[in-house]
Amino acid sequence: MCGIVGYLGPRDPKEVIINGLKKLEYRGYDSAGVAIFDGPSVKRIRAEGKLKNLELCLMNEKFSGHLGIGHTRWATHGVPSVRNAHPHQAGGISLVHNGIIENYLEIREELLKRKADITSDTDSELVAHLISEEVEKSKDLFQSVKNVLARLRGAFSILVIWDQEPDRLLAFKDGPPLVVGLGEKETFVVSDVQAALQYTKKFIYLDDRQIVSVKGTQLDIFDAEGNAVAQKIQELNWSSEQVEKQGYSHFMLKEIYEQPMAVSAAMAPHIDSETHAIRLAKVGFGKSSHDVETLDVAEDWKNTQKVLSEIERIVIVACGTSYYSGLVGKYYFEQLARIPVEVDVASEYRYRKPVILPKTLLITISQSGETADTLAAIRMAKEMGATTLSICNVKNSTIDREAHGHLYMNSGPEIGVASTKAFTSTLTVLNCLSLALGKIKGKLSAKAEQEQTQALLKLPSQMEVALAYDKYFSDAAEELKKFKGFLYLGRGVSYPIALEGALKLKELAYYHAEGYAAGEMKHGPLALIDENMAVVVVAPSDDLLEKTVSNLEEAKARGGKIISVGSGDNHRLKSVSSRYLPMPVAHWSTNPVISVVPLQLMAFHLANSLGHDVDQPRNLAKSVTVE
Ligand code: F6R
């Protein structure tokens, strides 16, 4: 949550910072601000609301300096307002912060006793005061930052400038991500590579408790004790065009349409292009995420087989949409590899003192690779002796770096706050992983393996068919808006898709929507049914279809309006439905990837027709780096 950008170099810092913040707005969008050198002093400008408000304030502003910092906020301490917007200032110090300072109350009391002039309700401003007090005495910014870092508890990434040093940017992190972008005689320090991708492809991912000092063109990185650390430069292959809308009205719509391509990219490394056999590529168990690209595929597959052959149970931990993909994964692993699986929400898992038995593989799923609870879960599981494997979209993100093994969604940047392509790519990766495990464990015949990989290879073109429902829901939105609530139902592998469909509608259209296992209807939710309740059901033609249709008959008999996502020309399902949406007939394991597409489109169009900001829904941020 919150996005930060720092720039030191020959370009116009105002332009670089605003461009960067635009790419980070997904992280928070309730206020924004910049502090940039203008002559010998630092000028600060802040605005409440979305970034465009700040842009308006900056329209006629010129800055003669070459150093500045900026921030887009998702409020934790203190309401969204100009007063609480970053950068915060104390003495000559200006600072932006992403995260939470846990010991802020004690620091605040201490500062108030010393009569500090605290002007906001934030925890962040207090850090500016601490650094300012230190630098007043020592006149040494690096030493001051180092001393203050030692005092802070919590999770934070912070950028600092001092009005006495117009060519020096300091940054430090403990928790939320921070990356250094390296250009020609210029340096960027940003929350996410996307913020600097249009200027450079060379990045250094910072580890926790590291301090960055940029003085002119000189970059140094230190640990918390002040010892210099090696700088590992990574070259990214993401292009800056990928983080633009490319003609679509919304990032979310673009990302929905990118799904056929994204699932192809997710499966491609793991299916041998000639034999169509499954073999996981470059998982790099025991290797750093920085090195996986350089691994030999055959050698690495041997290592992966060795590690996975030892595994007797799986625990999947994630949040939100990623958690729902884990629920689908449970069906895959249990059916295809006959391995017992537990799936848990990371915020619960990390605090419930879980029992981790020997030979457990803990899989974390995270698009951003930065979600605080998921990160805490993987750290805990590692300490308790589990072998860990991460499925991330952002390579070298913190979770990716901490895991023993590494798999990637390969979806390309996902900017819309509501996750779409990362979800379907993850299902595809989980499918490949469960096939690999089934093969290693001797549970998957060669014939079944071929059947499965054929089903996967057909998936992109089947998703194209599902995308045709774009127009359908753009037309249907007016009528669908009349419902008071939405109940999403599914059985088996379609149950998590019902949960995901309901989440998409909640977060985008702000309707009350609930996902339920269809078999649970009689145990309570049936009481909700009347003519104002839409029942959205995911019911492909599989061996659970008959049972689902019986549940729908009961809902229909009580006035519920049924919208069903089925497969092929299914008369039985059609007959109980007010609206029947046939998807291509597919394999049971790929059905979920196809049937989620119309649910994404439905949520998108409903929200859009209500005039909501689809890419940046209220109260949310894409990367949840605080608890
Ligand atoms: C919903 C959504 C969130 C994320 C969740 C986990 O559309 O995007 O529920 O799935 O915050 O995020 P990651 O996958 O980055 O750990």
Q: How would you describe the overall organization of this protein?
A:
The chain is an alpha/beta fold and 627 residues long. It folds into three domains: 3-247, Glutamine Phosphoribosylpyrophosphate, subunit 1, domain 1, CATH 3.60.20; 257-444, Rossmann fold (3-Layer(aba) Sandwich); 466-609, Glucose-6-phosphate isomerase like protein, domain 1 (Rossmann fold), CATH 3.40.50.10490. Helix content is 37%, strand content 23%. The protein is built from 19 helices and 24 strands. Strand 17 (360-366), helix 11 (372-383) and strand 18 (387-392) form a beta-alpha-beta unit. The longest helix has 22 residues, at 446-467. The chain is globular. The chain binds fructose -6-phosphate (F6R). Residues 319-322, 366-368, 371, 374, 418-419, 503, 507, 624 line the site of fructose -6-phosphate. Fructose -6-phosphate (F6R) is lined by residues 319-322, 366-368, 371, 374, 418-419, 503, 507, 624.
- Within the CATH hierarchy, at the fold level, what is the topology of the largest domain? Glutamine Phosphoribosylpyrophosphate, subunit 1, domain 1
CATH superfamily of the largest domain: Aminohydrolase, N-terminal nucleophile (Ntn) domain
Q: Bin the helical content.
A: 25-40%
Bound molecules: fructose -6-phosphate
Query: How far is the first residue's CA from the last residue's CA?
Result: 10 Å
Per CATH, the architecture of the largest domain is 4-Layer Sandwich
Query: Low-confidence runs (pLDDT<50, min 5 residues)?
Result: none
Instruction: Determine the number of helices (DSSP H or I, runs of at least 4 residues).
Output: 19
Number of structural units classed as domains: 3
Rg on CA atoms, Å: 25 Å
Strand content: 15-25%
User: Major β-sheet, in short?
Assistant: 8 strands, antiparallel
In what order do the strands lie side by side in the largest sheet?
A: 3-2-4-1-10-9-11-14
The class by helix and strand makeup works out as alpha/beta
Secondary structure: number of strands: 24
- Principal-axis shape: globular
CATH class of the largest domain: Alpha Beta
Mean model confidence by pLDDT: 95
